[in-house]
Design brief:
heterodimer, A: mainly beta, six-stranded mixed sheet, globular, B: seven-stranded mixed sheet, four-stranded antiparallel sheet
Chain lengths: 114, 118
């Protein structure tokens, strides 16, 4: 049973427009959420995170929104750039329980078209 | 220089062979992890270690073993490789520190090892 779901395997966006990547989770014990970005032939790199005590976290062009009641989070990239083309993984953890285990979604491949 | 390195980067082997994948880190982190990624799937945790004497199974540990030789080194072994262990393998590290509330120590990943079992 998948606890973290990224239902869109791929997304294409025009350069300069907004990219919105979505993630749903089923485990109500998750209290920390992260987005990782992965280029081909490289390991995932941390992008941005959010604690369940917040509903928004912003870092430059990247903003993550958390809707706890819907068990849904989204990553907004504005404006999108060709260098943002990568696979984006959503991950969740029960950090409050002292767990450092991450549960990952399957990823969404973002293509930003120049 | 990379903070988390993995060797080899690519490996092709045959069914039944013993394989060891190695991970080294210079970040000074106490915690190390091994993940597996299959095509079209997310990363799944195989084993994790919170220090040299603390090894824990992850969600898919069957068929794998690990060794934490030092704080900086964590190796993954496939005792008798089988074709469905063909995958990308990632090592990761994180700081110990505190967690919970508004804090979390994110994991830093190595570049991965592509393993093919024929």
């Amino acid at each position: 049973d998948q606890q973290v779901k990224q239902n869109s395997p791929s997304l294409s966006v025009q350069e300069g427009r907004i990219s919105i990547l979505n993630c749903d989770y089923t485990n109500s014990m998750f209290d920390y959420f992260l987005w990782y970005k992965k280029y081909p032939a490289e390991g995932p790199t941390f992008l941005i995170s959010i604690s369940s005590i917040k509903d928004k976290n912003e870092d430059g062009r990247f903003t993550v929104f958390l809707n706890k009641s819907a068990k849904h989070l989204s990553l907004h990239i504005v404006p999108s750039q060709p260098g943002d083309s990568a696979v984006y993984f959503c991950a969740a953890s029960e950090a409050g329980a002292g767990s450092y285990q991450l549960t990952f979604g399957k990823g969404t491949k973002l293509s930003v078209i120049p | 220089d990379a903070d988390v390195t993995q060797t080899p980067r690519n490996r092709i082997t045959k069914t039944g062979k013993r394989i060891m994948l190695e991970c080294s880190q210079t970040k000074g982190h106490d915690r190390m992890y091994w993940y597996r990624q299959d095509p079209g799937l997310g990363l799944q945790l195989i084993y994790y270690s919170f220090d040299v004497k603390d090894i824990n199974k992850g969600e898919i540990s069957d068929g794998y073993s690990v060794s934490r030789q030092a704080q900086a080194k964590f190796s993954l072994s496939l005792e008798s490789a089988i074709p469905n262990q063909t995958a990308l393998y990632f090592c990761a590290t994180s700081d110990a520190g505190t967690s919970g509330g508004d804090s979390y120590n994110e994991q830093f990943f190595g570049p991965g090892t592509r393993l093919t079992v024929l």
